[in-house]
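Subject: design request, 377 residues
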């Protein structure tokens, strides 16, 4: 039993060593690195034991015995870049602390943690397919819908929203919006809208003017809002959900040293989004507080306004009574005997307590009340 365990362990270790030794070669060169007793340099200059392949010591003049290390100055390391374009890099860049391969396979034995960015290449091809599909839709609808004069702009814009935009932006939640991608999406958008507006590039009309004339929001704004909404869904997901995890590196079979390494999707992005959401919440709370304070101030001013209006109405009534008494002759004309004035109402004394207010006093009070009303309003 123990012998079987030892044999299996030796076989697994040999497989791991073999997988480590053939790192950095392409599929077309794997026939030169088959397991055998000796290894012939690709230029045919020397025969060495196979154990010396990828042992971090340069034996062959062409550097073919060290495709996965930085031992040979003229060696080449093959980046598989699964999902993107494969490429060769100088072997001196292997494990130098700088991520040269998009699948991070060149930093398999360094302290640098490289992210797999090969998906950006897949994203470029996906965007190419989306733009091609949208162009096919526009070519199909060009004669029957887009430039047909019998159809109104409203109908054309409905077709633009219901057919063209879904064909162009399918799966846009996962797009990597580089500057080149933005320009291409905007060009695909405006190629349809210019035809709807009856314009061309020769007319030299800005895209913003065309959108404003047609009443259409920018497509890039819609894409960004949708991406932020999708990212919000990912942020709110529990940590154990599968969509919230992405691999750090590429194919684990090509790089066993990084097999099984995963990180929570956008840990830094998630923290940044959470900070933005906290800032937005704080801003909303401040705005709500300002609104509540404004409502309280408005209610206070409304109370003051009602009080001033009541004072103005009382003064107007007293002024009318005073004028009526003057017309009825209750007060004597100047130079003649003066009739005794009526008893003043309660509180209708002047500052010195010397009798009722005169007409001039009522007019001054009315002007003061009007100024107070203007200040409140």
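Subject: RE: design request

Done. Sequence follows.
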């Amino acid at each position: 039993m123990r012998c079987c365990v030892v044999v299996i362990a030796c076989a697994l270790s040999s497989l791991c060593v073999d997988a480590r030794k053939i790192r950095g070669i392409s599929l077309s060169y794997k026939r030169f690195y088959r397991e055998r007793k000796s290894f012939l340099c690709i230029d045919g200059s020397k025969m060495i034991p196979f154990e010396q392949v990828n042992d971090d010591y340069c034996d062959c003049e062409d550097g073919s015995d060290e495709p996965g290390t930085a031992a040979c100055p003229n060696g080449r390391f093959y980046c598989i870049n699964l999902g993107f374009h494969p490429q060769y890099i100088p072997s001196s860049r292997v494990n130098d602390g700088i991520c040269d391969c998009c699948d991070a396979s060149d930093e398999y034995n360094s302290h640098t943690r490289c992210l797999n960015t090969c998906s950006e290449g897949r994203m470029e091809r996906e965007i190419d397919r989306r733009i091609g599909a949208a162009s096919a839709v526009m070519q199909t609808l060009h004669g029957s819908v887009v430039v047909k004069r019998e159809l109104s702009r409203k109908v054309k814009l409905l077709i633009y929203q219901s057919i063209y935009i879904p064909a162009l932006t399918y799966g846009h939640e996962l797009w990597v919006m580089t500057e080149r991608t933005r320009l291409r999406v905007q060009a695909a958008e405006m190629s349809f809208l210019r035809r709807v507006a009856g314009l061309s590039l020769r007319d030299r009309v800005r895209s913003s003017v065309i959108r404003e004339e047609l009443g259409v929001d920018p497509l890039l704004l819609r894409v960004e809002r949708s991406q932020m909404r999708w990212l919000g869904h990912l942020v709110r997901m529990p940590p154990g959900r599968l969509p919230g995890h992405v691999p750090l590196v590429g194919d684990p079979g090509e790089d066993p040293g990084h097999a099984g390494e995963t990180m929570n999707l956008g840990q830094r992005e998630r923290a940044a989004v959470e900070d933005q959401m906290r800032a937005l919440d704080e801003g909303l709370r401040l705005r709500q507080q300002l609104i509540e304070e404004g409502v309280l101030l408005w209610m206070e001013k409304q109370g003051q306004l009602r009080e001033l209006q009541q004072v103005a109405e009382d003064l107007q009534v007293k002024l009318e009574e005073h004028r009526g008494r003057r017309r009825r002759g209750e007060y004597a004309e100047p130079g003649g005997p003066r009739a005794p004035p009526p008893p003043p109402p309660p509180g209708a004394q002047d500052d010195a307590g010397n009798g009722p207010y005169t007409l001039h006093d009522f007019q001054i009070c009315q002007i003061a009340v009007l100024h107070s009303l203007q200040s409140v309003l």
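Residues 2-107 form one domain.
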